[in-house]
Amino acid sequence: MSEYKDFLRTIVEEDLKAGKYKEVVTRFPPEPNGFPHIGHAKSICINFGIAKDYKGHCNLRMDDTNPTTEDTRYVEALKDAVQWLGFEWDNSVRFTSDYFSQIHGYAIELIKMGKAYVDSVDEEEMRELRGTVTEAGKRSKYAERSVEENLDLFECMKNGEFKDGEHVLRAKIDMGAANMKLRDPLLYRIRHAHHFRAGDAWAIYPMYDFAHCLSDYIEGVSHSICTLEFENNRDIYDWVLDSLQLQPPRPYQHEFARLNINYTVMSKRKLLELVETGVVDGWDDPRLPTIEGYKRRGYTPESIINFCDGIGIAKANSMVDVAQLEFCIRDDLNTKVPRVMAVLDPLKVTITNYDGAEEIEASYYPHDVPKEGTRILPFSREIYIDRADFSESPEKGYFRLTPTQSVRLKYAYIITFEEAIKDAKGNIVEIKVSYHPDSKSGEDTSGIKVKSAIQWVETNTAKNVEVRVYDRLFKNEAPEGLEDINPDSLKVIKTALIEPSVITDKPDVRFQFEREGYFYADPVDYTDEKPVFNKIVALKESSAKKKKTPQQAPKDEPKKVQIDGEVVPMSEEEQALFDKYTNELKLNSEVANTLARDAKLSSFYEEALQTLDSPVAIANIVTNDVARELKQVEISELKFTAKDVAELVKMVNEELISSKIAKQVFEEMVKSGENPTSIVEAKGLVQISDPEMIAPIIEEVIAKNPDNVEKFKAGNTKLLGFFVGQVLKATQGKANPKVVNALVTQALKV
Ligand code: ATP
Ligand code: MG
Which of 6, 106, 372, 619 is the most exposed place for a label (fewest CB within 10 A)? Predict the structure, then answer.
């Protein structure tokens, strides 16, 4: 147990000291309606962790009271998650549905005590009678029913004699309660639905508020730990258990803040949307915050547990930086996994003064890793290095190979540049170097000074591997949904090369590829014939500054088009377009590549350019949004024209509308064929840039998030994006992001 005691453990200790319980019993109670995510991992660590620390036990209970959304495959995924994290549940898995009879019996008791009644108003009337925060509600006239009538009706409900929604069972508590949840909450509703475990036995299903506390009681739970959004439900929890005058000891509910991480969404509903729309490749997509996703990506259970323990247990909601999770996995792997050499973007190197071949023995583990194991690195006159490790015209501070700067091949020799071989277009296709025979690593007497050692692989023995490089799934810190997806979250490199021992010895499934990051042999797609590695995490946290500079390849480097999985060469025409797009129009190579290779797209693009000279902005919308439409139909079948798209871009350029709103307008153009200006006018979508209109919204957002303001002031400047996002959200995306950014920055300084 860690030395620091969180507030939950403090409560548990006090209860034990006071003799309130003989044993600590907790439970993890997921609803089996989706795959578990890292928020669930947090809850698992808390519940199982506390039980373990105090030598009690923790139950795994499927909260399966909602027959229509649940499924056994989710049950399996939840069991897997708990086991993978290394915890054991007490006895067999429990199901709330196993207690349906008992819970039903408790409902009958409440009716007999006059504390529950069958109500028959429709939904709308029920809402009206409930009152508001400032006004007390009124009880429905059906609350006057006699105990006999209630028992009779409830029995008929159970037997399926009524339609869904015709009646409900309610607790008779207090229609004037300040806590609105206490205004005669629902206990049972009619649902003619097949339940994945209970079958068709029941036509009524208990509500969460009734089933949860009773399930806890039935299982002898002592501490019922849940997230903050259930704070107001605690009064019902207590009311039910107290009213039934159950034999002590009874459980009590305690709330903690749910885990939120930036750059991701967490709710099962939103995750389901990503899976169902095909934005990701299923629940185990390595970009998802699901346990299955982390598992497939290569995260270890230890890293997830360390993360959950490290962030502590809070009483107020907050946002945790994903960098913290990335730190945990790096920290875990750093001292565990073998270090090997892989070249992701190979450049051929011929060592002109080297003949023959040799085998170099090198350790898999650096000195401070308490593990042993070596491998053989074949070496010969032909090797590959990474393109980025040679530069003809280096920037200041470039420490690798240049025409005037030698470099060490890790574990081998120092090499010195001789000549670069270029193709007709001036791209470097090979370099020739010489090596220094007396510079071998470990026995270097050459006296040559180098500034770095780079990775390499030997041409004849290197194995071709596919490498999947993952980036954040969302572009911004507080994403709302599909519109915030990062289009570059997955890059597949099919032409990477790796030293042979990784495939033939298999010293591990996780590796550090020297100077590149941590990688994991994909548990699904990896075969020895076609090895596939997932990038788990980079070696270092990428600095925000680094990420903001546009990715522009230095002049002398060949275009990156070839490495991203596109191995088909371009036709001459396509190449000419590509060159024009990158050189004259300054498009980045990925966008230029997409346009140049697709005749439909490039002709649409060129036409739009005739109306508006904004090559980069138009290229972006054409390669993203228009391309999506053109997948289904021909240009002639589109309802909008290239001119319309140019007009839309113009409005964004002139800051009449935000780029977020532009997406919405584009969707409308696709559907109706209306021209963008009319759409914007008709729907009142003009961007708000007036500080006077934006300032009060900022004030409100700041007032609502005191914790984050404090963190921001304490130095977590990354939260700026959070605040900007909240303000944009409050204006439904209409506020001008630049203005919001400036105003928020100013407001937070005060
Ligand atoms: P979601 O909103 O993602 O659907 P949920 O709260 O509905 O999640 P359940 O399956 O009902 O998910 O939750 C199981 C347990 O996990 C509950 O005790 C819940 O409070 C906890 N839990 C869910 N999400 C988080 C989170 N982000 N942080 C901490 N605990 C969480
Ligand atoms: Mg839920």
Answer: 372
